[in-house]
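About this split. The held-out portion is used to measure sequence recovery: a designer receives only the structure tokens and must propose an amino acid at every position. Recovery is the fraction of positions where the proposal matches the reference. Here is one held-out target exactly as it appears in the evaluation file.
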């Protein structure tokens, strides 16, 4: 515990548990976060159909201390090396141990997340009159999360690829990713 003394003195709680519980803490936290992100993106789909403002919905429900405002920003969804992998592995493991029914909702969390990528490409086409053929598109920011150079399962790169497949001339740029690539050569 000496190694962690400064962190613990700073108010970080210490939880002592066994390995199975610790593993469930990690995947449960990631599944919950993925669910929260997909939830607001599902609400964004409904807002789009009704004319409601998803930001105001998120702000309003975020005032509820049981919910909180963090990670209630509608957007492309989640990517990266943890959340997608963890929810899929959690679903698979639950199935292996006979508890697959318990995590059926995570299938929809994953589907909502992937659907956001499709929808953003559709919106881009709608904004330019229905076709992206020959259009120039800039994608600013391609890391899977802000303030990172990590492009693993980048939803922005996925959307850029979709736009290109629809005939757009796509240029991508991300300051941190570019800097990272320059420094790793």
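Reference sequence for scoring:
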């Amino acid at each position: 515990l000496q190694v962690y003394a400064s962190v613990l003195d700073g108010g970080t709680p210490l939880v002592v548990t066994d390995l199975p519980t610790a593993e469930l803490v990690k995947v449960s936290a990631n599944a919950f976060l993925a669910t929260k992100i997909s939830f607001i993106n599902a609400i964004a789909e409904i807002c789009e159909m009704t004319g409601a403002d998803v930001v105001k919905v998120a702000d309003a429900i975020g005032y509820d201390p049981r919910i909180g405002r963090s990670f209630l920003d509608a957007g492309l969804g989640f990517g990266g090396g943890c959340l997608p992998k963890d929810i899929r592995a959690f679903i698979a493991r639950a199935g292996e141990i006979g508890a697959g029914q318990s995590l059926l909702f995570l299938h929809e969390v994953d589907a909502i997340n992937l659907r956001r990528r499709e929808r953003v490409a559709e919106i881009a086409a709608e904004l330019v009159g229905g076709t992206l053929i020959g259009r120039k598109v800039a994608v600013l920011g391609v890391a899977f999360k802000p303030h990172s150079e990590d492009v693993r399962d980048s939803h922005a790169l996925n959307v850029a690829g979709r736009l290109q497949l629809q005939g757009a001339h796509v240029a991508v740029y991300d300051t941190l990713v570019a800097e990272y690539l320059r420094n790793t050569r």
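Annotator remark: Residues 19-50 form the longest helix (32 residues).
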